[in-house]
Write a structure and sequence with these properties.
6 strands; four-stranded parallel sheet; TIM Barrel; globular; 45% helix
Length: 192
Amino acid sequence: MYDNKLVFSALCGDLGGHGFQLADENEDKIARSCYQLGNYAKSRGVVFGIETGSESPKNLKIFLDSIGSNGLGVNYDPANLIMVQNIDPVKGIYTLSDYIVHTHAKDGVHLKDCNPVEVYDAFARGGIDGFDFGVLFNETPIGDGSVKWPAYIKALRNIKYNGFLTIEREVGKNPADDIAAAANYLQHLLAK
């Protein structure tokens, strides 16, 4: 057996349909997630993290507060908040500070206001084929987008977050190079 000192920071999955965008599927999805899933996760010593993007940090906090399960948390993705809703992800860290259990390191730009329901509905109804990201938003290499990384790292430190900062790069001509550059950039920031 080889030991490459790799660890799993999180496992990503969805319940199908990318969220709760299809009303006729929501009753079943809610039954399979939220309180029951949170309690099951807690019983197994893990947390089910809801990824940011389709709703504001304020609304997500209201939802999580209403569920009342510490088996539910947040996978905080700063780029999703910027790209889809043009929300400052640094402020959102403070709003969701009690729930952040995992973070993404991803960057992006917001180009044109859009309806988050329509964006995530496009994912729910068959993916992103033909979806023109260049009109509404774009994912960028870390440092080329709108995430203010020094302030983002500072906010995570301020809330005493000491978990993973997982680089996510889903597009681009050479994601491997972008990931390597992101690792170097973030290591430099974290060393300060």
